Structure prediction request, 107 residues.
Amino acid sequence: MITVNLYYTGKNGSARKFAEEMERSKTADMIRAEKGNIRYEYFFPMNDPETVLLIDAWESQEAIDAHHASPMMQTISKLREKYDLHMKVERYVSDDMPKSDEGFIRT
Prediction:
């Protein structure tokens, strides 16, 4: 699994308005329905009201590439421009949790 954290930052609440429009327009739902998508969720950092965190997880790089080639990317790009958002990106590749960490996880 590949997880991408995208931090969208704007001014005057524009990042939150972007996330709200992504949800309201059902664009986020269409991305969630794409083959290979595991997670597509927005979060709001408590210490930064001008930033929205998107956690976007995919089964493989091929699934990400197909998503990037989809018409939804044009919609997302237009909305990023509309809300004048800037981005920071972090990318993680999952591995198995070591047994030594299991004692710290409450299930």
The first strand starts at residue 2 and ends at 9. The chain has five helices and four strands. The radius of gyration is 15 Å.
